[in-house]
Amino acid sequence: MFKSIDPKALDANFFSLLDDRWGILTVKTDTGCNPMTVSWGGTGILWGKPVVTVYVRPQRFTFGPMNEEEYFSLSFLPEELHNVGVFCGSKSGRDVDKVKECGLTVLEDQKAPYFAEGELTLICKKLYQQDMAGVCFTDEATDRANYPGKDYHRMFIGEIVAVLEKAE
């Protein structure tokens, strides 16, 4: 179903994946797993490792499990499942079982849950986390536009330990 590839062999355009198609950030919870849509993030090399960076606001249900768990996944679904991203970004795991409501198939053969429907999935080991802070913005307009309530995201940097691409 999936083939494992080296992170350095990725040829995906992450600008387009995150901005246009969005990612589904998934982490284990006490009751299974919780998918949350993300459209902010990045990939690169840090500390000599391939990494992904994602951001989660403190009021999101995913925030607690992201702080507690060592691993998370970031999956990219095909364009025809864009409605899943809309749903997972607008509903809270506190109130609804998003996996069940979206008809997603959870796979757990890696260190973090991910979805059979994904075309590309990054399995990540959390290396670093830090809260963003208003005093660190060099462009005050960005701070004002994105954080009027001062509910700054927490940044999570994860080492990409596996890249799973849908086998053709």
Give a short overview.
The chain is of the alpha+beta class and 168 residues long. It has helices spanning 14-21, 63-68, 82-90, 98-102, 140-146; strands at 2-5, 23-29, 32-38, 41-46, 49-56, 71-76, 106-107, 114-115, 120-131, 154-166.
Overview of the molecule:
By secondary structure, the protein is α+β, with helices and mostly antiparallel strands. The protein is built from five helices and ten strands; from the N terminus they run E-H-E-E-E-E-H-E-H-H-E-E-E-H-E. Strands 1, 2, 3, 4, 5, 6, 9 and 10 form an eight-stranded antiparallel sheet that branches. It has a two-stranded antiparallel sheet with strand order 7-8. The protein is globular and about 45 Å long.
Descriptors for this entry?
10 strands; alpha+beta; 168 residues; single chain; 5 helices; eight-stranded antiparallel β-sheet; two-stranded antiparallel sheet
Distance between the termini: 8 Å
Radius of gyration, in Å, reads: 15 Å
The quaternary state of the protein chains shown equals single chain
The poorly predicted ranges are none
Shape descriptor reads globular
Count of individual beta strands: 10
As a percent range, the share of strand residues is 35-45%
Q: How many separate helices?
A: 5
- Percent in helix: 10-25%
Order of helices and strands: EHEEEEHEHHEEEHE
- What structural category arises from helix and sheet content? alpha+beta
Mean pLDDT: 93
Largest sheet: 8 strands, antiparallel
